[in-house]
């Protein structure tokens, strides 16, 4: 039997969402120690091997910080977090990606990092646009996190948004930006 996967569709307001991604500062936050601490807290909270801040960019998923994934980006077409941003008002969870028809044939499931479990909460940027997700992942199937665990993940995501290095408005007004 051949396994397939379904890349997430792009949001209808993708242009506005991408503007929020570009303005967020996350594309230039690689290795930030505070963000790294937040994802370690997330992994400990749900007892998972892996965690990341996943920013859904034009055609890629970028991880400014990751724990246990061993990669800094993937094509957007294989992104679990690209699915999470489609419903920015709620967490997104995949209990067993190997059995979920949306993900069973995904290269991230079939080969390293061999994701089976994913739980992510959207990162909400400018104009209430979802720019990515704070997520935890594991190589073993998982259980539905409790409401308290999801609440704690959402609190960590809010702290991550507040921590992201902002694109300075004065730099943008002057015609240049470290975030462009």
Describe the 3D structure.
The N and C termini lie far apart (45 Å). It is globular, with a radius of gyration of 16 Å. The protein is built from 6 helices and 6 strands; from the N terminus they run H-H-E-E-E-H-E-H-E-E-H-H. It has a single domain (14-166), classed as Beta-Lactamase (2-Layer Sandwich), CATH 3.30.450.40. Helices cover 31% and strands 21% of the residues. The model is unreliable at 168-180 (pLDDT under 50). With 180 residues, it is α+β, with helices and mostly antiparallel strands. Helix 2 (33-46) packs antiparallel against helix 5 (147-163).
Give the topology.
Blueprint (H helix, E strand, L loop, with lengths): L13 H11 L8 H14 L3 E7 L3 E8 L5 E3 L5 H4 L7 E3 L12 H4 L6 E8 L5 E9 L8 H17 L5 H5 L7
Antiparallel strand pairs: 1-2, 1-6, 2-3, 4-5, 5-6
Helix pairs in contact: 2-5
Task: Describe what is shown at a glance.
The chain is of the alpha+beta class and 180 residues long. The chain is built from six helices and six strands. The chain has a single domain, classed as GAF domain (Beta-Lactamase).
Question: Which labels suit this protein?
Answer:
180 residues; alpha+beta; Beta-Lactamase; disordered C terminus; six-stranded antiparallel β-sheet
**Count of helices?**
6
H-E string? HHEEEHEHEEHH
Strand order of the largest sheet: 3-2-1-6-5-4
Report the sheet with the most strands, covering strand number, pairing sense and barrel closure: 6 strands, antiparallel
Q: Please tell me the total number of domains.
A: 1
The CATH architecture would be: 2-Layer Sandwich
* Total DSSP E strands: 6
**Rg from alpha-carbon coordinates:** 16 Å
Derived from helix and strand composition plus strand pairing, the structural class reads alpha+beta
| Termini separation | 45 Å
Query: What would you call the shape?
Result: globular
Q: In CATH terms, what is the fold-level topology? A: Beta-Lactamase
